[in-house]
Every structure is written in structure tokens, then in C-alpha cells.
From TrEMBL:
InterPro entries referenced in this protein's UniProt entry, alphabetically: Biofilm_reg_signaling, Diguanyl_cyclase/Pdiesterase, EAL_dom, EAL_sf, GAF, GAF-like_dom_sf, GGDEF_dom, Nucleotide_cyclase
Name recorded for this polypeptide: EAL domain-containing protein
Organism whose genome encodes this protein: Niallia circulans
Pfam families per record: EAL, GAF_2, GGDEF, PAS
Domain PAC stretches: 82-133
């Protein structure tokens, strides 16, 4: 049957498909010269059809793509059908990425040229590039890469896209109201130094002004813009003629820095560059916030949050170093350790409230700091206990220091209209006279402090071997602890852990209590440390785990819904050689599904990364879940957590208690939650006490929470759980 469509009709059809195609269409002869182009090709390249007829494809294609394109063309002329991605320059010199599909043209079975369709994939490639680079930056953040390295990488990415640009990142100093350079790898070093510390304010260049007004500042021509009046000569002398600056915000819309793009010629950003700047600013914000959070966490790891003084960990490290480096000039020189607490502080707390007590501790710390010299170390040990370390001193010099501390407390403290008089009891121990190591030196100073209290308070006592250690509370507790019948005198309380999405308490943390027949209920803060030091924590810890398993089994036998119970581990228990096998035996003997048990470790247990990793993987092999408790107060960081098989991260209550009003704490908590999620961890917030804290945590996508807002620790039968 004859084809009813004439050749002329087919030609018209093909011509229409060619001319009216929305993609660029073209035809080349055997020499690669253009024979035909459609209007879409003219629009794409900026060349008219007449201009095309004086060009070959090589005139348009980027140099690096020519070899591949020539090879593809040769294949097409031999009868192949193929596609290729190339980059060209349009008439304005702008780079365009093309995906080209082409086929050969034959006449009488002889190749005459090729015809092809070119699709503009510039935007697609650009978006893929941005996503790829963004993922690379996010991975660097999660991996814990140094923040300046990440900022340099962000700057490098922008400079790749914005040709002939030089970028910088500046970080805001809130206290000084200035911006300081954090990254400027290609900016002239003299200029970078010149603007380092630029004031935040109006008419302060692009960056200072952007930070002041909290909005993007585009200076297209530095030579004439009044914002650059004070900085113009320096910028122009280094060949910088345009500057676009965008403020970097934290999660609470506070300016924490600026991202700037400089050009060697007057220039204004197009929409593509605006989008690029927004992406770069977003990533820069994540990096700076992570750095700020890590700095805060690092500071809190070594400092007391309430008073700002160095904490117990900091002091112990300094004491160890001082003992190791001790080289007295004569036999009269020692290391002097003063251990003090505030007399009747508990009475003040109970009568005037913890708010007044906190202010008193702050004011006392300020007074104490004033009488401490550079070579001396002061710390808050916890509660109302403080220590001072003096290096290369005589007993008389230590005596003078103790008297001075007593004297600074002699004048009253004025707090909320109350005139409060407080006195210290100070115990003193000397190294090497009273001790051979840091542990016993602190203990002996503590014993001497109790002697000062026995002598009427508001005085100091040097340690003496004749002190009756057996009369101290510590020794009494140790003796009673050794005599205690664990199964009779200890009991468990449980605090629910609530799912913030469903508000259901589907798990709980087991907390040990000591019910002494004569001394009454003794809190774990008083006896756990003694149990740890004496090794009694091992049998106590085994009893806790077994008791928890028995409670779980009892729930199952009653037909109640299954739930997860968390058990705290101690440092000594965790590193005990038989610990993993003990856990396995208890789970097996009690017949409990390990998935319903969560073992909580503290950050101090992760100092030995290799050994901790080995133990944690052995525990995970048993089927239990692992959580890291009190995160942010100890030794680990987010970059190390990815080494451990951890399921949950529990944010310490110190970051939660002011989360609704303290922007720094809120920022730290938010950063920890985001990073934890990036590591595949779920987050539990500890110490939740208010509805406001709950709402903030929900907004941060925190999974679970526990604290007095829901319930104080109670016996299991008094606790409202799912059933």
C-alpha cells in the first residue's frame, strides 16, 4: 500500500518540528559548520542564524570538552546515534551546560552531516552541584571537622561559582560589637587584617552595616558608595571594587557573623548569586553555631555553670600536673590545698530559698577570685564546697591565705533586701608532707575541713594524722554501707521517660535508694561515690540490674504492656572484666528480652575510646540498648559518638533548666539534637520541670523527656505508666 503522505508534506512536518521545538536544534555539515539552527538555539546562545553560519561547533564548545565532542562527532558520522554533555559560552560569555542528542544525516547512504537537539541543563547541573556540596559540608560538620576548615570549604565553593570573586566569613563578637575574620583564604592578607575587628554599625562597610541592620547590603561600587567612606582607600588599593554582605543568623535571629563576596570590578548579584549566597549563609550559620555550642560545652566541661569558676575536673587535672611538676626550692616549700565550705549554707537555702543561695554562691565566688593570684588555682567542687591550690608555698603563706579568705567573708552579703552573714570552714593539707598523691591530698584537706567545723566553724585547720577519721560522716557511711544487706536495705524508684509526640510514658529510669534502718533514706549522691571507691558498687550494680529484670518479668506475668527500663552504670562497674558476662547471665537467668533494657553510661566512661567501644559492642551483641547520660558535661563530643553503638543521647539538665529563657542554652540544646539526629541517635532531655521547656523541646524535635514536670522518682507501684 502506498504511503498517503507526500515527501513535501513530510518535509514540512520535519521543518516545523525543527523550527518550533522549544529546545535548541541544529544541523552541521561534515566540517562541523552550522547549516541550520532554530529560533530556540538563537535565544539560548545569543547568536543570530546569520552569525551561526560563520561558526563551527568548536567555536562555541569549552576547550576541555572539545576532544570528547570530536570523538563523538566522528562516531556519529560513521552511523552511530549518541548523546553528549558539553559546556559552551554564549555570546555574552556566560557558560551554559548542554545535553545534546544527535543523529547522522545520510544521502544515498553517504554521511552528509548531523542533526541534533541541545537541552539547557545549566540550572539542573547547578542545583545538583549545590546539593552535592551541601551534603559534603554537612558531613564535615557531623564528622567534627575543624570549623575554620569547613568555612574555608564553603568560601571555596562560592568562589568556584561566582567567578573572579573573593569571599570572607566574619564572626560577631557580641561583647565588643565587632566582627572578626574567620575565613578569607583568597582575600589579600593586608586587607583581611585591616578589616579584622571592624565595628558593627551604620556606615561600617558592607559587613558592619549588614550586621547592624540585620539585612543584606549590596555595594555594587565601593568607589562611590558612602558606606565605604572609612574603608574605601584600603579596599581599592587591593583591587576590590564591589562587596555584597549578608548577615549570618542563629536559630533565634541573632546576628552571629557575616558572609561577604568581593569583586574586582563593580558588580551587582543576579538571582542565581542571591540563591548561592543564601545557601552559603545557611551552611555558615550551622558551622558557627556548632562551633559556639562546642566552645560552650568545652567551657562547661571545665567550669561551673553557676559561678563560672573552674570545676572539680579542671582542679583535679591542675593538681595532678602540679604534683608531677613539683620541684621545691627548699624543704619549707610545699603545695598547699585549701578545702572549704560555707557554714550553715543549707539553712540559708532552706529558709531564704535556692534563688538566694545561688546568688550567695556567685557573690562569694567573686570575692574569692579577688584574692587569688595568677599562679593559684581556685575551683567549685560542687554545692558549697570550694578548693584553692597554692604552689611552692610555706605553711605560713598558706595560713595567711586562709585568714584572707575568712576576712573577705566577714562583711555581709546583700541579696534581695537580706543582709546575710556567712562564714567558711577551711581544711588545709600540704604536699608532700600530708600526702603522696592528689586523691589523698584532697581527702585529707576535706577531713581537716570537718575538724574546722568541729572547732566552731569560721576557722581553718591544718591536717593532722591524729584527726579521728572514724568520726567523720564519710567513714560512718562507708562502715554502714559495708554492713548493709543489699536486698533488704536498698530499693528502686523509677522516673518515667515520656514520648513527646504521644505524651505516653513507655519507659522509665531505675534509680537506687538506700533505706537505712536508723539513718533513714540516704540519697545516692551520698553513698555512690563511696561504693565506687570501695568496690561495693559491683554487687550493688548487679542487684539493681537483676531487680529491674524481675520487675519487668512481673509486669509481663500480669499481662501488662511491655516497656523499657533504664539502668545506670558506674565507671568501675563498666570496666570490670566480668561485667559483660554478668549482664548476659542475669538476662538469661531472669528470662528477659534484652531489648527492654537500656544501659546508661556516662561520658567519663568513653575516655578510653578503644576499650569503651569494645565493651559497648559486646553489650549491643546481647541485644540491650545503650544511652549516654548527662551529655555535655564530661569528656566526649559528638564526633566521637559515631564510634560507639549508642541508641540514645540524654542531654544534661544543665542545658534544659534555662532553655526557655537562655538563648545560649537553647542554641546548644538545639545543636546537640540536630547533630544527634544526623548521627542516627534519638534524644532524651533530662531535668524537664516546666511546660515551657516541653514546648521548646517539641519544637526542636526532641523525641523524649524526663523530669519532675512529669513525675519525681517513685516506687514502681506508685508510678503511672502504660498498661
Amino acid at each position: 500500500m502506498d504511503n498517503p503522505v507526500s515527501e513535501d508534506s513530510l518535509f514540512d512536518t520535519y521543518k516545523s518540528l525543527f523550527n518550533y521545538n522549544s529546545e535548541a536544534c541544529f544541523a552541521l555539515n561534515m566540517r562541523g559548520e552550522f547549516l541550520l539552527v532554530n529560533p530556540a538555539a538563537e535565544i539560548l546562545t545569543g547568536y543570530s542564524d546569520k552569525e551561526f553560519f560563520h561558526l563551527s561547533y568548536e567555536d562555541l564548545i569549552e576547550k576541555q570538552d572539545r576532544k570528547v565532542t570530536i570523538k563523538k562527532l566522528e562516531g556519529l558520522l560513521n552511523g552511530d546515534k549518541d548523546s553528549v554533555e558539553v559546556s559552551i559560552r554564549n555570546k555574552q560569555g556566560e557558560k551554559i551546560d548542554l545535553s545534546i542528542v544527535a543523529v547522522p544525516i545520510f544521502r544515498a547512504k553517504r554521511p552528509m552531516g548531523i542533526v541534533g537537539v541541545a537541552k539547557d541543563v545549566t540550572q539542573q547541573n547547578y542545583m545538583e552541584f549545590l546539593v552535592k556540596e551541601q551534603n559534603k559540608i554537612l558531613k564535615m560538620i557531623v564528622d567534627g571537622t575543624n570549623y575554620t576548615t569547613i568555612l574555608d570549604e564553603i568560601v571555596s565553593i562560592v568562589e568556584k561559582v561566582a567567578k573572579d570573586s573573593r569571599c570572607s566569613v566574619m564572626i560577631a563578637d557580641k561583647e565588643q560589637d565587632k566582627l572578626y575574620t574567620a575565613s578569607s583564604p583568597r582575600l589579600p592578607s593586608e586587607f583581611a587584617t585591616f578589616i579584622d575587628g571592624i565595628p558593627i554599625g551604620p556606615n561600617s562597610g558592607s559587613c558592619g552595616t549588614a550586621a547592624y541592620f540585620k539585612q543584606r547590603i549590596i555595594v555594587s561600587d565601593i568607589a562611590v558608595d558612602p558606606l565605604w567612606e572609612d574603608f574605601r582607600d584600603e579596599a581599592l588599593s587591593h583591587g576590590l571594587q564591589a562587596c555584597w554582605s549578608t548577615p549570618v543568623f542563629d536559630s533565634f535571629n541573632n546576628v552571629i557573623g557575616c558572609f561577604a563576596i568581593y569583586h574586582s570590578k563593580p558588580n551587582t548579584p543576579n538571582p542565581k548569586y542571591i540563591k548561592l549566597i543564601e545557601e552559603a549563609t545557611y551552611l555558615t550559620s550551622l558551622v558557627i553555631q556548632r562551633s559556639m555550642a562546642e566552645e560552650k560545652i568545652q567551657h562547661l566541661a571545665y567550669h561551673d555553670e553557676l559561678t563560672g569558676l573552674p570545676n572539680r575536673r579542671f582542679f583535679e587535672e591542675k593538681l595532678k600536673a602540679a604534683i608531677a611538676d613539683f620541684q621545691p626550692a627548699n624543704n619549707n616549700q610545699h603545695l598547699g590545698l585549701l578545702f572549704m565550705d560555707l557554714d550553715r549554707f543549707k539553712f540559708i537555702n532552706d529558709t531564704l530559698g535556692h534563688h538566694v543561695g545561688d546568688i550567695l554562691l556567685k557573690q562569694f565566688s567573686e570575692r574569692l577570685n579577688k584574692c587569688i593570684q595568677k599562679k593559684e588555682t581556685v575551683s567549685r567542687q560542687g554545692g558549697d564546697e570550694f578548693t584553692v591550690l597554692l604552689r611552692n608555698v610555706t605553711e605560713e603563706e598558706v595560713r595567711k591565705k586562709a585568714k584572707k579568705i575568712i576576712q573577705i567573708l566577714s562583711s555581709p552579703f546583700l541579696i534581695d533586701g537580706h543582709e546575710i552573714f556567712i562564714t567558711p570552714s577551711i581544711g588545709i593539707a600540704m604536699y608532700p608532707k600530708d600526702s603522696e598523691n592528689n586523691v589523698s591530698l584532697i581527702r585529707n584537706a576535706d577531713i581537716a575541713m570537718y575538724e574546722a567545723k568541729k572547732e566552731g566553724r569560721n576557722n581553718y585547720q591544718f591536717y593532722n594524722e591524729k584527726f579521728d577519721y572514724q568520726s567523720s560522716d564519710l567513714f560512718l557511711l562507708e562502715t554502714e554501707l559495708r554492713k548493709a544487706d543489699i536486698s533488704k536495705h536498698f530499693k528502686l524508684h523509677f522516673q518515667p521517660i515520656v514520648d513527646l509526640k504521644t505524651n505516653a510514658a513507655t519507659s522509665a529510669e531505675a534509680l537506687i535508694r538506700w533505706q537505712h534502718p536508723e539513718l533513714g533514706l540516704i540519697s545516692p549522691e551520698k553513698f555512690i561515690k563511696i561504693a565506687e571507691d570501695t568496690g561495693l558498687i559491683i554487687p550493688i550494680g548487679e542487684w539493681v540490674l537483676r531487680k529491674v529484670c524481675q520487675e519487668l518479668k512481673a509486669r509481663q506475668e500480669k499481662g501488662l504492656s511491655p516497656m523499657n527500663f533504664s539502668v545506670n552504670l558506674s565507671l568501675r562497674q563498666f570496666f570490670d572484666s566480668s561485667f559483660v558476662s554478668t549482664v548476659a547471665n542475669i538476662l538469661n537467668e531472669e528470662g528477659i528480652n534484652p531489648a527492654y533494657i537500656t544501659l546508661e553510661i556516662t561520658e567519663s566512661m568513653t575516655m578510653d575510646v578503644e576499650k569503651a567501644t569494645q565493651i559497648l559492642y559486646q553489650l549491643k551483641d546481647l541485644g540491650v540498648e545503650i544511652s549516654i547520660d548527662d551529655f555535655g558535661t564530661g569528656y566526649s563530643s559528638l564526633q566521637y559518638l559515631q564510634k560507639f553503638p549508642i541508641d540514645y543521647l540524654k542531654i544534661d539538665k544543665s542545658f534544659i533548666q534555662n532553655i526557655g529563657e537562655n538563648m545560649d542554652d537553647c542554641s546548644i540544646a538545639s545543636t546537640i539534637i540536630v547533630m544527634a539526629h544526623n548521627l542516627g541517635l534519638k534524644v532524651i532531655a533530662e531535668g524537664v520541670e516546666t511546660e515551657e521547656q516541653v514546648n521548646v523541646l517539641k519544637e526542636m524535635n526532641c523525641e523524649k523527656a524526663q523530669g519532675y514536670y512529669y513525675s519525681k522518682p517513685l516506687p514502681l507501684n506508685e508510678l503511672r505508666l502504660i498498661d
